[in-house]
Amino acid sequence: MDNPLLAPEGLPAFDRLHARAVEPAVDAVLAANRARLTTLAHQAAPDWDSLVTPLDDMAEALHRAFGPAAHLNAVCNTPELRAAYNACLPKLSAYETELGQHAGLYQCFQALAARADALQLDAVQRKILHDELRDFRLAGVHLPAEQKARFKAVQQRLAEQEAKFEEQVLDATDAWRLDIHDEARLAGIPAGDRAQFAAQAKDAGVAGWRLTLDYPSYHAVITHADDRSLREQLYAAYSTRASDQGDARFDNTPVMRDILALRQEAATLLGFDSFAAYSLADKMADSPDDALAFLHRLAIAARPRAQQELAALQAFARAKLGIAELAAWDMAYASEKLREQEFALSQEALRPYFPAPQVLDGLFAVAEQLYGVRFTPLQSVSTWHAEVRVYELRDANDAACGILYTDLYARPRKRAGAWMDDCLTRRRRNGRWQHPAAYLVCNFAPPGSDRPALLNHDDVVTLFHEFGHCLHHLLTRVAYPGVAGINGVEWDAVELPSQFHENFAWQPAVLDRIARHHASGEPLPAELRDRLLASRRFHSGLHLVRQLEFALFDLELHRAGPTPDIDVLLQTVRRQVAVAPVPAYNRFAHSFTHIFGGGYAAGYYSYLWAEVLAADAYTAFREPLDTAAGRRFLEEILARGGGRPALESFRAYRGRDPDETALLHQYGLIEEDKACATAS
Length: 680
Ligand code: ZN
Fold this sequence. Notes:
Elements: H1 22-40, H2 48-75, H3 79-100, H4 103-114, H5 123-138, H6 145-175, E1 177-180, H7 191-204, E2 209-212, H8 215-224, H9 228-239, H10 253-269, H11 275-279, H12 288-320, H13 331-343, H14 347-350, H15 356-371, E3 374-378, E4 389-394, E5 400-409, E6 419-424, E7 427-429, E8 432-434, E9 437-444, H16 457-474, H17 495-502, H18 508-514, H19 526-534, H20 540-557, H21 566-577, H22 593-596, H23 606-618, H24 627-636, H25 646-654, H26 661-666, H27 672-679
Parallel strand pairs: 5-9
Antiparallel strand pairs: 1-2, 3-4, 4-5, 6-9, 7-8
Zinc ion (ZN) binds near residues 465, 469, 495 and 498.
């Protein structure tokens, strides 16, 4: 059968990939893997190549069959693809649980671990065995048969419900639109966004301007529209997506209840008292209490600053904008106006200086200076959309060592947000190296008919962030796929490379390289650049308490038993940390895909946790693009992947344990000399 998803090597053939290929490919690989598993798990004296290597081969085949489909489901969602994707989820979940609960396989891993010395396994191999044995226990390998079966059923149902949660957010977002016929209502909104709204109306065959809930559209209105009622209308629609307060067809309420109950049940079956405790069993933080204490320490530092910032914003809004009482839909708008006044700076004024292709070239130059690697465009590689670009990564010896796909612009049927994903993982196969490949996906405002896509500085920071994830995946030197690149890295340390790379978007030397006017070629005026840099800490308190609200809500929600009252819990957390106004109808949790879609469940705190590591890691740089420190970061952090615990990698790089004061200093929450005194 000529199914492109069954190709054993090479990059995915996206141009030949049809939704109808997905399920047969997954079925074929699962059948072949199960057959192989039977013989694998009956070895008396397994060694690395008789146990781990074949399992890696099986995982690779499955990833090759399903990974491209999962990726397309996120970036080019169609009904056919979604159906195929959903049909595979329970099958994959069942298989994963079977593997995790396989008593014979578990015994083989125990036998291999017992022979680690005799077989002279290296430290990375031992780390893999340690992780595997832990994961067997976290999958319930030791449970009695009946509970094992229940655990498996719970995992399957969870996979389905998490996918449904994401679908309903996507559908609720796509179903909403507002057609505007009076241009006066769009006053304040930048010309580029208005042109995009007009193009959307034209595509839909209607007159005027079409507003949607895609993030660039929402962001343009909520940040810039002078018409307060328009901001309120968009805010109400956006903050009630997929909820009981929005379009009833997409209400996620029952799905969320199901997800929480299922997660609690899975944790209980394994003997944990909460899903949060279960989730943290393989993370860097010791326990939910450990993570909560960390968040509360940050809250104590951040909240007074956030309250001051809000009071100043309120006074400004009253005096200059005629807004007597700030509402939720005024926050971004008033903040932007205040930022313009304080720094004579608007995000929009910066856009012409940040054409997306030029920013990406600048990023590549930063990577070249820090790590000695080069990215060069590749033509003739199959992709999923005309806007996608492909680059080859070459190491310091000019040897090809990885592939990067970029898909930067928002469009319909594409999941919101920005992320990286793993396409291929580095490994040795049949005597040759398979190079890693990564997807870098964003949702920036697309190019116009007569100009490139223009980013604001927030977008630039986002691009540096996701690029950091990609470098982590692509610059790995680990030979074993289970811990190469981003694989096997503790979840709360995964954001270290990404947030670390955000720092470079704030360096004058880097800005001078990436920021040039798209039409005139003029560099970003130094004075404008300095005002941008001065604004880095603008509203850092408000930003931080918002992140703390998400992180605390997520952890508390997953400690609160099988049927928590989601709204009451959210109110409680908001009373503890939030300072900004929120209307009673706000249902942000109903579109909080980070935690209900899977990945970050009882793990949202990871962003802040890893931000401590990232801020502290950057303090080792003696100059903005310190090549020696960059090479050390490459050697001790990026190259190591999950081959050793994140804390050990950090110690190897920094020579000591992480220190929270670097983050507090970065946010401007403590004085410089205090940071130096405690961090020295
Ligand atoms: Zn990230």
